[in-house]
TrEMBL record:
Record bears the keyword Protein biosynthesis: no
GO molecular function annotation: dolichyl-phosphate beta-D-mannosyltransferase activity
SUPFAM superfamilies according to UniProt: Nucleotide-diphospho-sugar transferases
Stretches assigned to the Glycosyltransferase 2-like domain: 13-180
UniProt protein name: Glycosyltransferase
Localization of this protein: Membrane
Domain GtrA/DPMS transmembrane as annotated: residue spans: 250-366
């Protein structure tokens, strides 16, 4: 049934980042209609080009309900980036972010809006940890334990006072996101933590308890690699955004490659009976290959390569890393000749190699579409 426009601009924009949530689209729109009766609202589906037709399902509803908008992102992915893009697309004075999978309690939205309208808060957060809130059946034991650890780290390292900095359900004044957007990372999954940390204690925050519900349709998009991504965000914010989250992830993957190299070297010599030089070459390519695969899945997950593009990317990564070795050795030798301190020269060479590999692979291997 068509929904007539009120003629008034929206007071609240609800941003729903989506990927393969087609079945949940009509359910969440109907839930918002019930919860926000009497409020001038709109909902923006920010879809990462879902193959299941999520964007098309949202557009079908938008054809009869002007409060529904769709942003289809092609060539870029990531929850944080989708949230930022959706919030910045709003002209409403208040913006909310929540999941489209119905695990967040949409009936809290009017209370959160009332708190911000009152002028005493800049950010309203739905918390599973506040008194009266609960994780419920929405998270497995493993994910619940990981969430607890992540919360503890955020509170300890960044001095974040939130009870649930991992929450993905919040509302804020749009002027806040306008101010903080240049400092936010488009990578990762925990945009709330980024917002609060970037606010540097200036934001007035109010929390509302809620019970995290079970997903009704579809599957969770979170995987174990999200933990590494989250740790990268923590470190980046701890050091005042001096180093990007993506570079930290790239460096972490590179460090893991050293262990892979040593294991492959030992295995090549003992298991395959290779001479050292041959085993060293074998181990180098094994390490570069694993580094490429991890970076493709984690560091550049928003530009992830598939099919033939993945093969092309692997070959360019081999070339980039080969030049990186020359840069590493060259810088290390240059410094050692002038200041014969082995650890200083070695560290400088490794840093130069890492910076080269990161910069070159960003342009050549995982270049933006």
């Amino acid at each position: 049934m068509p929904v007539e426009a009120t003629g008034r601009s929206a007071e609240l924009t609800v941003v729903l980042p989506t990927y393969n949530e087609r079945a949940n689209v009509p359910l969440i729109v109907e839930a918002l209609r019930r919860a926000l009766a009497g409020v001038d609202w709109e909902v923006v589906f920010v879809d990462d080009n879902s193959p299941d037709g999520t964007a098309a399902a949202a557009r079908a509803i938008a054809a009869t309900d002007p409060r529904v908008r769709v942003i289809r992102r092609v060539g870029r992915r990531g929850l944080a980036g989708a949230c930022i893009e959706g919030m910045l697309s709003s002209s409403a004075p208040f913006v909310a972010v929540m999941d489209a999978d119905l695990q967040h309690d949409e009936t809290l939205l009017p209370r959160m809006l009332a708190a911000l309208r009152g002028g005493d808060a800049d950010l309203a957060v739905a918390s599973r940890k506040a008194e009266g809130g609960a994780i419920g059946e929405g998270l497995s034991r493993t994910r619940a334990a990981g969430s607890n650890l992540a919360n503890a780290l955020a509170q300890k390292l960044l001095k974040v006072s939130l009870t649930d900095p991992m929450s993905g359900f919040f509302m804020l004044r749009r002027q806040v996101i306008d101010e903080l957007a240049p400092r936010l990372s488009s990578q990762g999954f925990k945009i709330l933590l980024d917002i609060v940390a970037s606010g540097e204690g200036r934001l007035r925050i109010v929390e509302f308890p809620f019970v995290f519900r079970e997903r009704q349709e579809g599957e969770s998009k979170l995987d174990t690699l999200v933990t590494l991504d989250y740790l990268g965000l923590l470190v980046s914010k701890f050091f005042g955004d001096l180093v990007s989250v993506r570079f930290l992830m790239f460096s972490l993957v590179g460090a893991s490659g050293v262990l892979v190299h040593l294991v492959a070297l030992r295995g090549g010599m003992l298991g395959l009976g290779l001479e050292f030089n041959v085993a060293q070459t074998f181990a180098t390519f094994v390490a570069m290959t694993t580094n490429f695969l991890l970076n493709n899945r984690l560091t550049y997950r928003d530009r992830r390569l598939t099919g033939f593009a993945m093969l092309r990317g692997l070959l360019t990564f081999y070339a980039v890393c080969s030049v990186g070795v020359l840069a590493n050795v060259g810088v290390a030798n240059l410094i050692y000749e002038n200041e014969p301190v082995w650890w200083l020269a070695g560290t400088a060479g490794a840093a130069m190699g890492a910076v080269w590999n990161y910069a070159a692979s960003s342009v050549l291997t995982w270049r933006k579409a």
